[in-house]
Amino acid sequence: MRKLAAYLKPYWKAASLAPLFMLFQVVMELLQPKLMADIVDTGIAHGDLRYIVRTGLLMIGISLVGIIGGWGCVVFSSIAAQSFGTDLRSDLYKKIQTFSFTNLDKFKTASLITRLTNDVVQVQNVVLTMLRILVRAPLLSIGGLIMAITINPGLATILVVTVPILILTLTYVIRKSFPLFSRVQKELDGVNSVLRENLSGVRVVKAFVRSDYEIKRFGLVNDQYTDVGIQAARIVSTIMPVMMLVLNFSILAVIWFGGIRVNSGNMQVGEVMAFINYMTQILFSLMIVGFMLMTVSRAKVSAERIEEVLGTETDIMDRETASGVSIKIGRVDFEDVSFRYEGAGGEPVLRNITFTALPGETVAILGATGSGKTTLVNLISRFYEVTEGRVLIDGVDVREYKLNALRSGISMVLQESILFTGTVWDNIRWGRQDASDEEVIAAAKAAQAHEFITKLPEAYDTLIGQRGINLSGGQKQRVAIARALLKEPVILILDDSTSAVDVATEALIQAALRKLLKNCTSIVIAQRISTVLEADKILVLEQGRIVDFGNHNELIQTSKVYQDIYYSQLGVEVV
Q1: Residue 94 CB-density burial (10 A; 0-12 exposed, 13-18 middle, 19+ buried)
Q2: Do residues 62 and 31 touch, judged by C-beta distance below 8 A?
Q3: What's the pLDDT at 391?
Q4: Is the dihedral of CA 449, 450, 454, 458 positive or negative?
Q5: Angle (CA) 5 8 11, round 5°
Q6: From CA 136, how far away is CA 3, in angstroms rounded?
Q7: Which residue has the higher pLDDT, 201 or 72?
Q8: How sure is the predictor about 206, in pLDDT bands with cuts at 50, 70 and 90?
Q9: How would you class 278 by CB atoms within 10 Å of its CB: exposed for 0-12, middle for 13-18, buried for 19 or more?
Q10: What is the mean pLDDT of the chain?
Q11: What does the alpha-carbon distance between residue 494 and residue 492 come to, in Å, rounded to a whole number?
């Protein structure tokens, strides 16, 4: 929590004014029981109506002043807390944007969403609480104790017994509930994870009639979340009965011993009433402090989760010696590259990969699922760092480029075509914001997307739903290809990006790419053999190794693996 306190510094004025206004309100509230006692002991006892009216009007005036103090505290504490939350959420989001794929693999999407939303809200609420209630409660407790002692020091000894009982109860509850609050946040991660998967794949769920299964799966994690929450609530709920028991016994003791003092002439009735009020304020304030400390303990868990993200070292960053020079030629060299995912055991995902892709060439990568194709191309843009060996672009190790310069020269169309909420214009321009309408249309035509776009309800002005929900798989792929082409890359990486497109359309896209990107280095991952037939070079991967290398004519004669793929897809047996 201390590390996050720095986010309050820019708003120190509002954070300082809030407690001051609250102090003002507390002082006004502490005066009320004393004035009430004066009305009873002086005004009513002596039948002085003028004194009663004058004191009553004073109490009303003090209440109005107290309301102003409370209003000021609410306004300034809200400004400070909301601004704190906004800046924290913004920095957390910026930090996540710097993460490499390795960092993202560690935290998981659902957990990051929880940290950006629920955890930030928990911490933000604590800041608001501390500026309001955690200021009010201690001031009211201390002020009430002072006022009680001034009325009758002997009667105030009752608090010596009651206050420790409350403090011990609160300490016990906080210590027991803290581990449960940590589990609550983890279980919430699980709920968000299942919820996200289900909503993203709702069409698959319906297609396979698995709604009942998904409902049970969600019910399981939801019940686990509920059970932990109930455990925490059960412990917290012990405070109120203990508090009311202590309060009622305290009032009974004050009435008993206060009545004795009134009979002996050592106290007046109004003073007993005022003492009961002050004691009630003190005990309720302590109870509120306890509740707030439990809120703080829960927020501490959230703060630790936030700090874990903010404190994570991004493992892929610009080196001090990195150059801001952009990619010019597009030659790609893999020199004895091996790669292993962080924390993974067994054999590396990629082993001793060596090949060269020259400017203007199309290099295709074939291999079974899990052979390391996608991992290989992710190393080019430094989404992951090589474990051994080097990846060179234009003869320079990719680690010697600044990340922005490196990735600006590379366009990627990933396996899953991700589109964003916005118009078709917006999604294609996502690769280059300053592109003209004519350039966008040219890129769409090259990607064979222009024809279907013009048939949409509002053509290029049609709004695309989240993740391209209102487009087919093939349409999304073509828009994604258009987005990549508009960037005019030096290196183009297509990761199985035409899998949802028919063979005829794929042929048209390939022809357009060869024409439009004559000098561009293209690296194509494909499952269909028809995609790679005209590639200049074909890499055949098997279990992370290059087992065969060459063009189609060479591999069809020499590579058993390539022959098997060719035969299985085209139905032509090679002798």
Answers
A1: exposed
A2: yes
A3: 92
A4: positive
A5: 165
A6: 24
A7: 72
A8: low
A9: buried
A10: 81
A11: 7
The length of the chain in residues reads 575
What pLDDT digit, counting tens, does each position of 348-379 carry?
888 898 999 898 888 888 887 778 888 898 89
Which amino acid type is present at position 506?
A: E
Burial label for 402, CB within 10 Å (0-12, 13-18, 19+), is middle
Per-domain boundaries in the chain = 12-188+234-310, 321-409+520-575
Closest to 326 measured CA to CA, from 401, 381, 432:
401
The span from the CA of 83 to the CA of 311, in Å, is: 21
Residues 6+ apart with CB under 8 A from 256: none
Contact 180, 94 (CB under 8 A): no
pLDDT band at 574 (very low <50, low <70, confident <90, very high): very low
What's the CA dihedral at 433, 408, 490, 390 to 10 degrees?
Answer: -160
Q: How far, in Å, CA of 491 to CA of 560, rounded?
A: 30
User: What sections of 237-268 are H helices per DSSP?
Assistant: 239-263
> Cα(303)–Cα(297) distance, rounded to whole angstroms?
10
Taking 60 as the threshold, does the pLDDT of residue 573 lie above it? no
- What does the alpha-carbon distance between residue 76 and residue 79 come to, in Å, rounded to a whole number? 5
Closest CA to 544 of 333, 397, 334, 392: 334
Q: Are 509 and 445 in contact (CB under 8 A)?
A: no
Model-level pTM?
Answer: 0.69
In CATH, 12-188+234-310 is 1.20.1560.10? yes
Single-letter amino acid code for the residue at 195: L
- Chosen CATH of 321-409+520-575 out of 3.40.50.1240, 1.10.1270.20, 2.10.77.10, 3.40.50.300: 3.40.50.300
Q: Which two tokens stand for residue 533?
A: 């037939």
| CA–CA dist 442, 445 (Å, integer) | 5
Tell me the pLDDT tens digit for each residue of 83-122.
988 888 898 888 888 887 777 877 777 778 888 888 888 8
Q: Is the pLDDT of residue 321 over 70?
A: yes
Burial bucket for residue 557 (CB in 10 Å: 0-12, 13-18, 19+) = exposed
Q: Which tokens belong to 316? A: 């892929």
170 and 289 in contact (C-beta within 8 Å)? yes
State how far the Cα of 516 lies from the Cα of 536, in Å rounded to an integer. Answer: 17
